[in-house]
Amino acid sequence: PQPHGLKMSVAGVAHNDVPAAANWACAAASAAASAAACSSGSLQDAEFSAQMRRIEAALQGAPKHIRIRGTAWAQRLGLLASVRQSEFRRDRNLHAELLLQCIEDGRWEEPMDKHPPEGPLPCLPAHVACRLRRQKTERTDLVRHVGLAWTSSAGSEPLVRSLSQSAISQQQQKQQQQQQQQQQQSPGPQTRPARATTPRRPFSRDSCCCYYYCCCQAVLVVILVVELLNSRTVDLATVLQEPQQLLWEFGSLRLVKLTAKDHLSRLLPHLLPIARSLHECLTWRR
């Protein structure tokens, strides 16, 4: 499109010299660039004005110490409302976004933890600036994803937070409805709630060996008790009163590990009646 004030047509450019055509192209490009800059600048100014209104609303319900410093920073940022440079506008909007987050969270971050300077704004830390840009990009992508406009038709106010929250709630409701419909249509084994299962303890090689030796020891203890009772060297009452003596006698054979003796001490009350019944059977046969 031709810039305002230039009436030169394409035919006129063709009949004139090359410098005139170059000047016309440069003028058209500069006009288009200035129009794009004005549109982006107006968008940044509208975003800043909306942020300042949200800051003013947040300060009304904030504590006293937050309200005092927040008001000072809001007044300092308000002096930058007529900034023309695009870089300064972006930095101003990032400071306003950080101020709003600090007021809502009730704690100050650098550089908001100090009083605002009289000169230029202090630079934001790299991690804070990256976080604010990432959050803004995520909100913008979410608004575009759900097909909502960046500005409202009434006052050109950015609807970033309200639209993002409503979009998230709508997506969650849709997902819940889809899951309920799938469960009603196909109540198969996949849709049934999973049972609470306790994790099984792995059965290691050491535990296998321990239980194996313990079983062998239990059998040999029964045999040992029977042999001791048959030899008439140990009375059954003595064995029942002092079962640890069997552990000492059997441990001298060095056939099992020490860990198996702990298991065997628990099995002795059950093994002694078995040994007694075997002894009675052998005595009755004789």
TrEMBL record:
InterPro entries: CEP112 (IPR055310), DUF4485 (IPR027831)
Domain DUF4485: 45-126
A UniProt-annotated Pfam family: DUF4485
Stretches for region Disordered: 165-202
Biased composition (Low complexity): 170-201
Official protein name in the record: DUF4485 domain-containing protein
Taxonomic source organism: Polarella glacialis
